[in-house]
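[09:14] KT: can someone run the structure on this one? pasting the chain below
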Amino acid sequence: MAWFMVIGAGLLEMVWSYSAKQSEGFSRWGWAALTIVSSLISFFLLTFSMKSLPMGTAYAVWTGIGAAGSFAVGIMLLGEPAGAWRLLSAGLIVAGVIGLRLTAGN
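[09:31] RB: done, structure tokens below
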């Protein structure tokens, strides 16, 4: 169950980063509210997952999902550049998250 919480928290990282961008500096209240709510839920899910997962692993997976996912959202929805070096760098983040997940019990 803890892994589902970390994954959900990471997905909510993507939501709040996108909604933060859309809030235009918190000047658009609906997007600002979504940013606050999704970030709080993400934080609490991460915190609860740490009851049974190592802190470093949980935090790294949470930020990795959020970072790589937000990177993908930026490319797909915001038209941000997807150059080879940027894609390679995001791939390294994903590889690190997978590695941490596979070695979490060691």
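[09:33] KT: thanks! The chain has four helices and no strands.
[09:34] RB: yep, looked fine to me
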